Input
Amino acid sequence: MKSNKVYESIIFLLNNIIKNERLKYFLIKNVEFRNNFLKQVNSLLTLEKDFEQDYQEIQWSTVFGKAIVKLTAEKIRLEKVENAEIDSIYAQYSEFISYVGKTYEVDHKDLLDQTGNLSQEVVLLNAKLSKEQVENFDKAENLKEESVQPEVEKVNPENITFGGGIGSNSNQGFNQQQFGQGPFGGPASGLPIHPMQNPYFYAFDRKNKYMPIMKMILAIISSIAAVLLIITMSLVVSFKAEMSNTEIDKIFGGLTESGKLYYQLPGRTSYQLVSIGSLPLSVSNQTMNWLSYVLYILPPLYLWLDINKKVRVNGKTVQPARTKYRVGTFTVVFLVVVYGIVIFTIYRYVSVGNFKSLWWSFFENMWKNLNGTALENKVSPEEFNLFWSKLTELNGSKFATVTSMAIVALVFIVITVVYGIGLLVINPRPDREKIMRANNEYQKAVMAAMQGQKYEMDPSLFEKDENES
Output
């Protein structure tokens, strides 16, 4: 299902609820229903932020957020769902339709109707219910409760079974034991779970049997890259390029302050007196940036978490096929982006020539003398070249150590980025046909459950239990 179609479907569903007087009453009275409604609004927000969706050039999460506030006079907070996928959003949308239809006895075609005028003005206009209308619904509900028999026939959850090649008992156990609550946090009410929530449902077009090993290789390479990167950046900041004031004064001659130069950016009036005999190799007086180091560690950490992601089913720990044979798209994209940017950072330190360019970009804004409040005698390229030759002569081992580490780190980072892009290319794609079959089977199971009947979903939809541990 395409993201724009899912977005439009949710909009019309919420609009049809807002148009329905009785459903508006339950939005006011029933907190659970209201929370479920807001989850769909959050899905709209997610589609807008992560998938750049809108309809009629309007972002409808704001419209329906205002509508529910106007209707209920309750404050709300909309939150984007992190790392959400289209299929999971659509699955929750389908479950919400079934939930509303069964709980409030509303025909599905009324909830899915996409005819009629739709505008934000109409939605906000419909988002009201008079005090008199609320009182009338209260009376009707009270009369209904009084007339209900003490014993009401309920749908037996045991009538809903799931096939899957691992035995109907195993899948049935997953359905009931793992999801004793309904998809919205309330009672299961006899409704089956959607196949997308079943760890044995694999909604992709192929399986690469080498993917687990390939993911492990990427995690190892990226971990090594992170360690080398942190070591290199630490050395760049902590190693000092040392030179005595006597040597400095001999090179630059006639300094106002022995061993010191004045640093001033173009167009600025302020300046800084810098002791150039003990600058870090990075040339700037920066400290270790721990936040950057955390950022370097996060990509491989996410990968390891993705590799070891498992769920509990019927007392057993299993790794779903969707985790085993795929790599998380967000995880790898995050890795490629972070390390792709880092390539430009680390490249500055892979050779003494690169260090020289880095230092000259600093020294070309240096002055030798201060006359009153005016700086005089800017450092010339010739003077800098003499200074640099002496500096590398005195600190050659430090520069050699850092450049060697930077080269090795750069190699591992480039391999990580290229390898990550390769995994994205071969990553299995969603099997649209299978997802449609699953949606159809789910709708059949829901309809059967609502009629107190038994329906077994197509067993070929589900994988065999090959990942027990």
In short: The longest strand covers residues 366-371.
